[in-house]
Amino acid sequence: MGVRGRLAAAAVAGLTVLVTACSGGGTPASVPTSAPTPGAGTTPAPAAASDALPGMPPVTNARNVYADAGANMLSDAARAAKPLVYVPHTKSGEVRVIDPATFATVGTYRLGGELQHVVPSWDMRTLYATDDILNKVVPFDPVTGKPGAAIPVQDPYNMYFTPDGTTAISVAEAQKRLVFYDPHTWVQQGDLPTPDCAGIDHADFTPDGRTAVFTCEFAGRVAVVDVARRTLLRTIDMPTRNTHMGPQDIKLAPDGSVFYVADHDQNGLWVLDGAATRVIREIPTGHGAHGLYLSRDATRLFVTNRHEGSISVLDAYTGAILTTWQLPGGGSPDMGNVSADGSQLWLSGRYDREIYVLSTADGSLIRKIPVGNGPHGLCVWPQPGRYSLGHTGITR
């Protein structure tokens, strides 16, 4: 969630938001909440082989698009990186770097502005801290863990890379547009206005790489984009249009059959068909559903429930809820990722100045680490996979 565009509301309701859960609207009768048989009632995703976006690494397993991002399946570039966790802060304007072996903070870099996410580049050779207030990204060398000179980028609340690696996409939340850049020279390639997608936020891509789905947090809908043509195909309204803190993170199911969309104020997930044409059901999880992360074998989906201090664990294929992990003493689990070996889930405590490290085996809390003010889109690095689609490390 960005900060601009809602400062006035935050001044009135900020403290209340931190300690209370938002209530979602009622579930429409036309949207079932039970998990169907895998593939039932879904529109198949576009073909992921011959029809794939040119230049995109081929999908090697149609049943699991994340098959090449399994435990410790590191590329040469990722293998060269120093294992570190990068924590950007929206309030204190710093990136803190944590050694995952000792849980100690080994670097604090005061970069100013409003740092939202630390994003791995498509080729996994650079990490970028995005700053949507000062219109810059700050590159970090993952080999050394050190920052470099800032690069001018328009309103980079979040950042993604097209699956063929040719374009970096700045998700310009405040400007309601996507801005396209050459990821090597950072020369602007063009932009795509999305005036009906207030709060444009997170994204994921179909298995063939040709279609991207962006969430619209303040419009209660998603925007579906043709990647190659850089055009808006359609917008899809959620059955309940939450426009305060509505659709947040989005994740493609391993078999490409559906997209899961976390809706903070609905307290759960909406499920889109794999072709991104309609909402087919709803999955209640917990208050403030926000971040979505897959287990390293892609069989489980972890959903952070930010306003109740819990993580819902779902079957990644069917959406069935397997269990819920409660953080001892509560907290505000927000964004993060799974460790390279799959044993740990790292999450920022957005409103509590802390980081949570959980066991992915049973959800037990391994460590709670104090950090600065407003920890947000932390990046656990390195990550397995052949390439990165961006955000906090969506790899395939």
From TrEMBL:
Keywords: Signal. Residues 77-379 form the YNCE-like beta-propeller domain. Pfam families: YNCE. Residues 26-54 are annotated as: Disordered. Residues 28-50 have a biased composition (Low complexity). InterPro entries: Host-pathogen_enzymatic-act (IPR051200), N2O_reductase_N (IPR011045), WD40/YVTN_repeat-like_dom_sf (IPR015943), YNCE-like_beta-prop (IPR048433). This is YncE family protein.
